[in-house]
Structures are given as C-alpha cells and as structure tokens.
Amino acid sequence: xxxxxxxxxxxxxxxxxxxxxxVWSRGLQESFSRPSVSPQLSLHQRELSVLAEKAFxxxxxxxxxxxxxxxxxxxxxxxxxxxxxxxxxxIVIASxxxxxxxxxxxxxxxxxxxxxxxxxxxxLNEPIAKTFQIxxxxxxxxxxxxxxxxxxxxxxxxxxxSFCIDQQIAKNVSIRLLISQFLPFIAVxxxxxxxxxxxxxxxxxxxxxxxxxxxxxxxxxxxxxxxxGGFVVLGEVFIPAIVLPIVGSFTQNLAQPIGDSxxxxxxxxxxxxxxxxxxxxxxxxxxxxxxxxxxxxxxRLKPVWKAIFIALKGWLxxxxxxxxxxxxANSLFGDQGGSNPLLELVLNSQDRLALxxxxxxxxxxxxxxxxxxxRGVLLPVLAKRFGPFWGVxxxxxxxxxxxxxxxxxxxxxxLGIGLGLLRL
Length: 424
Known about the structure:
By secondary structure, the chain is mainly alpha-helical. The protein has helices at 7-31, 38-52, 58-64, 69-78, 87-95, 100-107, 117-123, 141-144, 147-156, 161-164, 167-204, 220-251, 256-271, 273-284, 304-333, 341-348, 352-386, 388-402, 409-423.
C-alpha cells in the first residue's frame, strides 16, 4: 500500500476539487430552471382517476379519487400555459368542455400532430369526412394507444358509457390506483413502527458503541481523486462529451423512446467507467495480506435472504424520514424544481421496451453504482478518519450535492444519512 501523497497526486486532487466545485455550482444553479416532476405525477394521477372512476369501489371513491375526477383533471390542465400544453392534452381539456366557445380556446391553434386533426374538427363541429364516426375513433393510432383520450373524446362526441368506457381498463387502473395508494401508506406505517422500535432500543441502551469500521486503507487524497476526479470530472463531464455524440449517431434511426432509453443506458454505463477504473487501480495497489475476510468492500451478501431482509428493513425505516423532510421542504420553500431528467423520461415513456431500459438504469445500475462509491468506499474511509458520526454526515452531504438538485437536496441528504447508518 502506498501511503505517500506524491506531488502529482496532490496537484491532481486540487485541480479535481476546483473543477468539481465549478461543475456542481453550475449544476445546482441550473437545477432551478429544470422542471419538477411533481406536476406531471399529479396530472398522471388525475388521469388515472378519470379512467378508474366507473369501476372504483364506491366506499373509497371520494377519499382516493376525489368528488369529481374529471373536474380535477381539467383544473390541472388549465394551470398549464397554453403555449406549453401538448396537442394531446389540448384534445383532452377540450373534450372536458361542453361549449364550442370554450373548446375553440384550446383547439384554434394549429396542431403539430396531423393524426389528431379529424378529432379536433369533430370536437368543433367542423365539416369532416363523411366516413368519420365515433366507432372509427380506435382506427386512429394516437387514440387507440391512449385509453383516456379515447374515452373522453368518445364521450364528448356523444358516445354512450357502454361504448366509450372499457370496463376492463377501468378495473385494471382501479387496482393499480389502490396498490399505489395503500402500499406507500403501509410502508410508511411499518417504517415508522420500526423507527420507534429502534429509537426505544437506543434510549434503553445509551452506551451502544458504533460498530467496528472496516474501510479501505486509502487517504483523503485518494477519495478526492475517486469522487471529484473520477465521478465528477471524468464521469460527468469528459466521458459524456465523447460518448454521447457517438451513441447519438447510432441511435438517431431508432424510434424516439427506444433511442432515448438506449442513449441513457449506454451514457450512464460509460460514465461509471472512470471511477470504477480508478477504484480498481486503488484496490490493486493495496496489500492483500491486510484484506479482511469479507473483502475490502464488505458487501455482506450471504446469506442472501438475510441481506435482503436487512436491506428492506433499512429502506422502510429511511422512507418515512425522507418523505417527511421532502414534505416539510416543499411546505416551507415550495417546489424548487430540479428533478432528475431521467424521471421525466420514465413518466413520459409509453413503450415497454424503452421503459424497461430506463427502469434498468434508474432502479438497478444507478443505485448499485452510487452505493458502491458513496457507501461502499467513501463512507468507511471518512468514518475511519473523522469518526462514524461525521463520516455519515460528510458522505451524505456529498451524495446529496452530487445529484445536482437544490429542490431534492434535503431529502437526498436524509436518505444518505439513513443509508449510511444502515451501511455501518
């Protein structure tokens, strides 16, 4: 193991810090101009409520769907500036209006989607082809793939519920809404109970010592080179500048959602290579004689079921705190925006393959890589150097800032603390 901080490493670390400060400060400033996904999530929830209304359990309808789901959807769409609303949503909101005068406010402007022109004309009672009938709505691809658009336009053009409302879709969406409402609720309750239990244990055993810290015998200079140099400068700046144009040339002929998903997957995979290469070189340089039994990174994956149970338990305890801090921050400061652009892609993706690739990136690759860098390597080294408490705080702060979102800074910081405590 090399302990000496040679001059080139010190200068390289200093340069990495300066570039990282510049990149992160610019990223945090730009996060104010990035839209939040919260309005999209809210709008999507209201769309699902309209679809599920006719099949939803009566006893739960008002508490989950609201008194009038269609009016709630219309109110949400009206808040969007007219020059920012999509052709699809202009059709949706026009279908929710009864008067031609109000419909024309949303439909008078030219449509970029020519496939919706006949629907637009029909809603405005303009002359259209004689062959156009309500029964032919499903012949339009944009309508066929969009149950809400079909249901609302069909009803607006005078169709009966029995023809316009697909009961199977309504039933499926109802089940989906019930799961999406009750699972988080149950998870928060369980997590809160586990938190209270853990707090009670700590109160009763005030002298509980921190667990023994097993860390890679690396210096702070090594950590700067790994995080600032590898993760930020090379991973977030240098590699994307080279890889993304190349990937874009290969994916430009693919269908739009699939092309974007492939580009995100390859781009994210490429940006992990510099820090992983640096980490590998750092580990190779260590004396294997001192390596602990479970390895330097202490994955603790065996037995598998025990590892899964511990991870699930920890996630449940962290979630109420993250949600609570997120709610408090939004209540005090409002929605600051700056959501991860990948979340917007996930929300807007209708293609199953594209969605699968995005989920693979956001749910599997990204968390695995971040845990390796921030909790697998950085946290133990900082905890060994500054103590467990400050090690958790410092690593959580770096983790939160690295996501470049002022609006999500507080909940990500709390998440980093929770995951750090779980790691120790």
